[in-house]
Design brief:
The complex is a heterodimer.
Chain A (H helix, E strand, L loop, with lengths): L3 H11 L1 H30 L8 E7 L29 E5 L5 E3 L7 H5 L2 E7 L2 E6 L2 E4 L19 H13 L5 H4 L10 E2 L3 H15 L4 E5 L10 E6 L5 E14 L5 E5 L1 H21 L4 E11 L16 H4 L13 H4 L7 E4 L7
Parallel strand pairs in A: 1-2, 7-10, 10-12, 12-13
Antiparallel strand pairs in A: 1-4, 2-3, 4-5, 5-6, 8-9, 9-10, 10-11
Helix pairs in contact in A: 1-2, 4-6
Chain B lengths: L4 H17 L5 H17 L12 E2 L5 E2 L1 H12 L3 E4 L2 E4 L1 H11 L5 H12 L6 H8 L3 H7 L5 E2 L7 H14 L7 H16 L6
Helix pairs in contact in B: 1-2, 1-3, 1-4, 1-5, 2-5, 5-9, 6-9, 8-9
Classes of the chains: A alpha/beta, B mainly alpha.
Chain lengths: ~350, ~200
């Protein structure tokens, strides 16, 4: 395990906040916090997916300049007004009161601005800060977001689970989740992908549920013990949310032979297992309010070959055949008991040939 | 009930900072940032008893202060905070009171710690701050025990001071601004999780 002192040393050497302080002193520190707060505020209003070009936000530390083409400071920008616009690129300068103003840079480069400013630059999911003649790229701790400054905080678990399906699962965006696949076209799962699915969801929830909840992965992972996650509100000791994860699809060993084919009956089995687990918990902890959430990672494909061969492909009609197919649960615990949420089926799509 | 002056000030200041970042805040967030501020107080070479109140670490690895909890309840009861669904919001009365408290010299140093703690949410999501701080030696140790335990007792602080010393030596006495060690330390703690995702 890496020593924390070594990590501190790396952080001091590699990251943008110490850089800004080192280059511009206290004014640099003030500037970089103002820039980060402004960028966060911007991304609360503007979806980064809608920005095809680049984003530049800067705060002048020692005024030289004639930077950009705006004469002085006119009216500050209201980021909310940008929410529904088609945006190519954005550039803002932060004034002395911390308010952003639109700028058109013309031929001025960000390196030139950085001589007297702390500069944030985003393009194509890459972020960096510049100060003086130094630059540091921003480490994105959450791979399902486009920016380190756009990780949302969800008010509740249900909302977070719905976003997990879209943000991490559908396109296998998360680095950890991506490892569940045997092949690059995402047709077959690796054998025993449960722990990776659990880790991906655990990390996602931890990054987004704020300080209200603790997200605890279960340690025992095998076919007999369910892979699940416990979510516990921090200051309400009698509440507990259990997340059970099951997957559907075909898993293969490293040599390509199929190790498991899970279909609807597997989903039913998981629902039964969670219902029984909730019953057990109710008996062992009768004073707790327990809720069950059932997450089904759906990686089913139609017309897969009998074994996974290198370079296997799939057409869209087969790859996404199961995407809209609802699983009919009988019995349907979520309709008969209040402690069982409607299952969260999350379709994990393949890369198709068409 | 008499309000604990330090805990009350801390609740109000943290609440303002969190509310400025989002629509509202929660009780656990106040406990979390008050605790982070207390750690920065120690980093700044003050003694723990001068913080004015104590924290326990729950078995979940969360910081909790009885004084903060009582202050939160009183502030709600007296109309300083409003409950909006599961979250809280400050009222104008709270804003005015905080302005008065902030001007007091006795609150200057603790305000620096509280502001530095709250500034970290410019660099991380709330969830990331929570995750990072749960790796801090004291909270990390409390997770290993089945019941709540008092945090920051003298005997337990040594590992914490080793980390603070590493911070100081790498930051080379550059600045007295506590935002820098706060962000560097949280980054390091978060990275220590990222290298072992299935920790705990």
């Amino acid at each position: 395990m890496t020593n924390i002192a070594d990590i501190i040393k790396d952080v001091c050497r590699d990251t943008h906040v110490p850089m800004a302080q080192e280059v511009f002193g206290g004014a640099g520190l003030d500037a970089i916090f103002q820039v980060m707060e402004t960028v966060q505020e911007l991304y609360r209003h503007v979806d980064l997916e809608r920005i095809s070009g680049e984003v530049l936000v800067y705060k002048v530390v020692s005024p030289p300049a004639n930077i950009g083409s705006a004469p002085g400071f006119a009216r500050p920008v209201d980021f909310a007004s940008l929410a529904n616009q088609n945006i190519h690129s954005l550039c803002f300068e932060i004034d002395a009161d911390g308010r952003p103003h639109s700028r058109v840079l013309g031929s001025t480069s960000r390196e030139e601005i950085a001589r007297s400013a702390v500069v944030y630059h985003y393009a194509g999911c890459q972020e960096e800060f510049l100060a003086g003649n130094q630059r540091k790229s921003v480490r994105r701790y959450d791979s399902s977001t486009r920016s380190q400054f756009s990780v949302p905080t969800f008010g509740n678990l249900r909302e977070a689970l719905q976003h997990f399906a879209r943000d991490n699962v559908r396109e296998s965006t998360c680095y950890t989740f991506r490892k569940i696949w045997h092949d690059e076209n995402r047709l077959f799962l690796k054998a025993g992908p449960e722990s990776l699915m659990r880790d991906s969801l655990t990390q996602y929830l931890r990054n987004r549920l704020g300080a209200d909840h603790d997200v605890l992965p279960e340690q025992n992972v095998n076919e007999k013990n369910p892979v699940d996650i416990r979510v516990q509100p921090r200051l309400r000791n009698n509440r507990l949310i259990i997340i059970e994860i099951k997957w559907l699809g075909d898993s293969v060993a490293t040599d390509g032979h199929v190790t498991a084919k899970h279909r609807d009956s597997r989903a039913q089995e998981g629902a039964k297992q969670l219902a029984e687990y909730l019953d057990e918990q109710r008996q062992s902890a009768p004073s707790h309010v327990i809720q069950g959430c059932y997450v089904i990672i759906d990686a089913r494909r139609r017309n897969l070959p009998a074994t996974a061969t290198a370079g296997a492909t799939i057409a869209r009609v087969d790859g996404f055949h199961y995407e809209a197919q609802v699983i009919a649960f009988a019995p349907a615990a979520h309709t008969t008991r209040q402690d069982f949420d409607e299952p969260y089926r999350m379709f994990a799509g393949p890369i198709c040939t068409d | 009930m008499r309000l604990h002056p330090n805990a009350t000030f801390d609740c109000l200041l943290v609440a303002r900072r969190l509310q400025a970042q989002g629509a509202a805040f929660t009780g656990p967030e106040i406990h979390l940032f008050a605790y982070l501020a207390c750690l920065l107080w120690l980093y700044d070479k003050h003694i723990v008893t001068d913080w004015g109140y104590s924290f326990v670490g729950t078995e979940l690895g969360a910081p909790y202060s009885q004084e903060i909890d009582s202050a939160l309840q009183e502030l709600l009861g007296r109309g300083f905070f409003l409950r909006v669904h599961d979250r809280l919001r400050m009222t104008e009365l709270a804003e005015r009171t905080l302005d008065e408290f902030t001007n007091l010299e006795m609150n200057r140093q603790r305000a620096e710690c509280l502001n530095a703690a709250c500034a970290s949410i410019a660099a991380f999501s709330l969830g990331m701050v929570t995750s990072a701080l749960s790796q801090e030696p004291e909270l990390s140790r409390s997770k290993a025990l089945p019941s709540s335990r008092l945090l920051l007792e003298d005997a337990a602080q040594s590992q914490l001071y080793v980390q603070f010393e590493a911070l100081r030596s790498n930051l080379d006495q550059r600045t007295s601004d506590l935002r820098l060690p706060a962000v560097v330390w949280l980054s390091a703690l978060y990275r220590s999780i990222a290298s072992t995702p299935v920790e705990l």
